Amino acid sequence: MATFQAPDDIDQPVFKVKLRGSAILTHPRWNKGTAFTERERVEFGLVGRLPYKINTIDEQVARAYDQLESHDTDIRKNTFLQSMRDQNWVLYYNLISRNLRELIPIIYTPTEADAISNYSHLFRRSEGLYLTFEHMDRMEEDFIEQTEGREIDLIVCSDAEAILGIGDQGVGGIGIATAKSAIYTLLAGMDPSKTLSVTLDVGTDNEELLKDPLYVGWPHHRVRGEAYDRFIDKFVQLIRKYNPHTLLHFEDFGVTNAYRLLDLYRSQHACFNDDVQGTGAVTLACIMSAVGVTKTKLSDQRFVIYGAGSAGLGIARQLRDGIIANDNQTASFANKQFYLLDKHGLIHESLVSQGKVREGFKGEEFIRPAEEWEGVPTNQDGEIGLLEVIKKVKPTVLIGCSTHAGAFTEEIVKEMGKWCKRPTILPLSNPSRLHEVRPQDANDWTDGRALIATGSPFPAIKQPNGKEYIVAECNNALIYPGLGFGAMLSKSRALTDTMIIAGARRLASLSPALSDPDQALLPDFEDAPRVNYEVAVAVVEQALDEGSADIDWKKEDVREKVAKAQWKAVYGKYIYEPEGEE
Q1: Does residue 462 have an active-site annotation?
Q2: Annotated active-site residue in 32, 77, 92, 108
Q3: Helices of type H across 212-278
Q4: What angle (nearest 5°) sits at the alpha carbon of residue 30, between those of residues 25 and 34?
Q5: For 351-371, how does the pLDDT look when each residue is reduced to its tens digit (9 = 90+)?
Q6: What is the pLDDT of residue 355?
Q7: Is 77 a catalytic residue?
Q8: Which of 77, 180, 362, 491 is labelled catalytic?
Q9: pLDDT per residue as tens digits for the range 395-430
Q10: 0.90 cut: is pTM over it?
Q11: Which site in 39, 76, 349, 367 is 20 to 30 Å from 528, CA atoms measured?
């Protein structure tokens, strides 16, 4: 098993700052609150603006945590932390970094979904760049207004059509873009001053929002078709023109647009879609780990994926690419290892001819031939269900991303266990109440033989022999920040499939299960910062190997340079300089 080698020693950076008095106290990048030193208080005109006591960051974090705990609901804690982020970046990121497992669910899923759904009623101040279809003719002017003179490494954008399982949220999509940017900082070390969160307000089909007199977005039904494409293209071309080396992260677009836009722009710019590629990459790493435990190969596996939306298709594509890259197989061979099901059952040619495959489905290569299923029992509508697929295919891997709670029944799991010595079962749907099977049940129904990972955190499983099996959390945050940070550092004009596979391979190599099969298939979430450091290193190394990097680093220097590039949540030493930063 690989070991973590990210340097832990942090030097205090020195900054020349031109802001003084109230201006520095109200700037989240430079504000230290009670941590300003005696010299800085005099130099920046703060002696009379702050109480006497000078606090350490440890003391400030302890105070902030006590304040956080005084709030009795997660949504109020979310609001408190947003307010802290608006006041003091170092304190905000330092506090969360010390309490990742507890606070990531507060600033991201699931609590952020509640904050986004109430965005217009909770609105207090701007969180980023709001680009509205109604103002498309002035988009360049608005874009330049926020970006000119800034060094930007990451742009996270959303049109908010498919937010965190709660659907179309209109202008509230700025909340998911901001949360995703924060995760990049927390887990990969992206400098928050070099990130930009963008909401692409093309209207909303959410009738509750359209009828809400307090809705702060454009009160218009969602724009689609050619007009939508012109709006998105204008935005992307502005990024290519003014910020050619940024990473463009698409977040929570609807399933049709998610694939289409990624396929359209990824050859033109370094683009990433976490719902498609991030989910696929972390699942690939998880399966690679399981393959390591069973001493088999990716190409030996037969995959049944229950749920053929953006996540399911992203997983299928990423696993397919992994088979091709790792086992030197053809795409034709790899495509045949997958069986995808949606609400109408197995996706096969007869289903397509009946018009039951949704419009815009982007998994044509995974559609099974009709003759393959002659004689297989169907329901009254001619649809082939999950149990019948399991009986015929005898899969080694069963993946759920359907949000169909309890879909993996005892009969289905036991049927899978008949044919597979160590079946891999991944109920990945979020939140936990929508999981396809309880990990404990999957374990019991396979007599403790199943290798299990979930989309939400679950407690360890009690085994009949008294031991515990650690359930891995197949969380995108274990990989996407490192993928993005590595792509940004490499200055590659594309985040290539091989760069993503390199990151997944590195993550899999860190699996605790490789040294003890009773341990988790993936590292613990609390190790996410060090894991993403390793992923970023692997991505940069791959970019250098394949020639897609636009940097002159030597490969032996990558680890040190990645660590040096990481932003740390520590206070710098400030020197007043009228021509300094602001």
Answers
A1: no
A2: 108
A3: 225-242, 255-265
A4: 55
A5: 888 888 876 677 899 999 999
A6: 81
A7: no
A8: 180
A9: 999 999 998 999 999 999 999 999 899 999 999 998
A10: yes
A11: 76
Write out the E strands in 210-344. 247-250, 271-273, 303-306, 338-342
- Structural domain boundaries of the chain? 56-269, 277-478
Which residue is listed with tokens 């049709």?
256
Give the CATH fold of the 56-269 domain: Rossmann fold (3.40.50)
> Hey, do 56-269 and 277-478 end up sharing a CATH topology, with the first three levels equal?
yes
> Is pLDDT at 5 greater than 60 in this prediction?
no
Residue 210, token pair as written in the block: 């359209």
As its CATH architecture, domain 277-478 has 3-Layer(aba) Sandwich (3.40)
* Terminal CA-CA length for the chain: 45
Q: What is the C-alpha to C-alpha distance for residues 206 and 3, in angstroms, rounded to an integer?
A: 48
Closest by CA position to 246, among listed 153, 184, 177: 153
SS (H, E, C) 132-195: EHHHHHHHHHHHHHHHCCCCCCEEEEECCCCECCCECCHHHHHHHHHHHHHHHHHHHCCCHHHE
pLDDT category at 157 given cuts 50, 70, 90 is very high
pLDDT of residue 6 exceeding 60, the answer is: no
Choose among 269, 221, 289: nearest CA to 513.
Answer: 289
Q: Please say whether the dihedral angle defined by the alpha carbons of residues 63, 66, 72 and 77, taken in this order, is positive or negative.
A: positive
